[in-house]
Design brief:
The protein is an alpha/beta fold. The chain has two domains: 273 residues, Rossmann fold (3-Layer(aba) Sandwich), CATH 3.40.50.1970; 114 residues, Dehydroquinate synthase-like - alpha domain (Dehydroquinate synthase-like, alpha domain, Up-down Bundle), CATH 1.20.1090.10. The chain is 44% helix and 19% strand. Strands 1-2-3-10-7-6-4-5 form an eight-stranded mixed sheet, sandwiched between helices. β2 and β3 form a beta hairpin. α6 packs parallel to α9, α11 packs antiparallel against α12 and α11 crosses α14. The longest helix is centred in the middle third of the chain and has 26 residues. The radius of gyration is 21 Å and the shape is globular. Bound molecules: nicotinamide-adenine-dinucleotide and zinc ion. The site of nicotinamide-adenine-dinucleotide (NAD) has 30 residues, from α5, α6, β9 and α7. The site of zinc ion has 5 residues, from α11.
Length: 409
């Protein structure tokens, strides 16, 4: 099996030649993934798929190395699909756009593209309208596809364009960041930002297909990869103690983990997200467990400035905070907090609030966050790694104390 070179993603201090241990039998049993080994002429491709069962809106997530070339046939297999508008950004397009366009055209689809500047600022009104106009100019009709080739910014923007163009057309997610592979490309939340706040205008609109080619992660900057790892670790904390243990044992030697292990990890995260979304497509209740670490994390992200802290970095701090609050309120073992901080730090993720960020400010930002119900912030708290619950209230004094004193009681 081909081995991915992920050395660049590991912090220098961890670069040692230890081999990643294989998945334990228990981990394999519980994974319950459909695994198909597919070969093409040049290399063995490990491919997994996860089905998101949502009745008429059900779709498949295909994961693995070398999948970009399968995009054309897979899109062509969607009913009545003849034309696609591929949306990407200036960092991603030079690496992958030609392959995607070639694959689509080869499969008989009419394919055009629109390449936008990278960064959160692109998830906004001017670029949304640029996409609408581009879609009109390229003759996209109700049967046309938007194809989002990029990270969460491109996925959210193109997804929202698809949700609203001609009152809704289909779209395909081709996530190229780890965060987009495990989180934003699955579940159908699409949005743009307003100057007043993030994701304030959006729609639930499920993709028709998700294709995550892990080879695209080779060009992802290390800091972006680490940010995605925060979400991977989150899945372990909220639902999957075996995944958490596997991450502890397999990393930091991601360089040796190989394409199989990485694909398996991403697939496992997607499966958890799929299960949660299936149970609560429009986030009326149980889906909120995906927000572990996010109540405070979002506030930290906004206060620090979106360009200073990556989303996963803010969430890493938020998760440690939530673990410490869980210690006080839910009997969460302090040893689990130590395991969480140790794992986050291995990926160079922060675990303590930025210097000088006060609780009063965090509280103020949390109060205007749309996830705050009935005036009081609600938290996702846990009993232990692998088991959390949403909708938990916590006393202000206790929250402030945990914020100010961290792990010290
Ligand atoms: N819809 C959802 O459920 C959901 C969930 C989580 C986050 N989000 C949204 O996702 C966005 C963040 O997504 P993100 O972290 O992927 O950020 P991003 O899309 O900005 O990508 C991060 C950076 O990496 C670059 N990049 C992407 N793929 C690359 C590759 N393969 N090689 C080289 N460079 C590459 C991008 O150009 C960008 O500069 C936020 O807007 C957030 O609100 C949405
Ligand atoms: Zn997140």
């Amino acid at each position: 099996m081909k081995q991915l070179e992920f050395a660049a993603h590991s912090p220098q201090r961890h670069r040692h030649p230890a081999r990643a241990p294989a998945l334990t039998a228990e981990a394999r049993r519980t994974m319950n993934l459909r695994v198909a080994a597919v070969s093409d002429q040049t290399k063995a491709v490990v491919e997994k798929s996860v089905r998101v069962e949502l009745g008429a809106r059900a779709y498949d997530i295909f994961l693995g190395a070398g999948l970009l070339s399968s995009i054309g046939p897979r899109c062509a297999a969607l009913p009545n699909a003849h034309a696609a508008l591929v949306v990407s950004d200036e960092n991603v397009a030079p690496h992958y756009l030609d392959s995607v366009l070639a694959s689509l055209r080869c499969a008989g689809l009419r394919a055009e593209s629109e390449v936008l500047p990278p960064g959160e600022a692109t998830k906004s009104e001017p670029y949304l309208f640029r996409l609408y106009r581009r879609a009109v100019a390229s003759g996209l009709d109700r049967s046309g596809l938007f194809v989002a080739l990029g990270g969460g910014v491109i996925g959210d923007l193109a997804g929202f364009a698809a949700a609203t163009f001609l009152r809704g057309v289909r779209y395909v997610q081709i996530p190229t960041t780890l965060l987009a592979m495990v989180d934003s490309s699955v579940g159908g939340k699409t949005a743009i930002d307003l100057p007043e706040g993030k994701n304030l205008v959006g729609a639930f609109h499920q993709p028709a297909l998700v294709i995550a080619d892990t080879d695209t992660l080779r060009t992802l900057p290390p800091r972006e990869f680490a940010s995605g790892m925060a979400e991977v670790i989150k899945y372990g904390v909220i639902r999957d103690a075996a995944l958490f243990e596997f991450l502890e044992s397999a990393f930091p030697s991601l360089s040796n983990a190989g394409v199989g292990a990485l694909t398996e990890i991403i697939a496992r995260c997607c499966r958890i997200k799929a299960e949660v979304v299936q149970a609560d497509e429009r986030e009326s209740g149980p889906r909120a467990i995906l927000n572990f670490g996010h109540t405070v994390g979002h506030a930290i992200e906004a206060l620090a400035g979106f360009d200073r802290l990556r989303h996963g970095e803010a969430i890493a701090i938020g998760m440690v905070f939530a673990a410490r609050v869980s210690e006080r309120l839910r009997g969460w073992p302090p040893s689990d907090t130590r395991r969480l901080t140790a794992l986050l730090r291995r990926f160079g993720l922060p675990t303590e609030p930025p210097e000088g960020m006060g609780w009063v400010d965090v509280q103020r930002v949390m109060a205007v966050d749309k996830k705050v119900g009935s005036g009081r912030p609600r938290f996702v708290l846990g009993d232990r790694i692998g088991h959390v619950e949403s909708g938990c209230a916590a006393d202000d004094g206790l929250l402030e104390e945990v914020w100010c004193h961290g792990g010290r009681q």
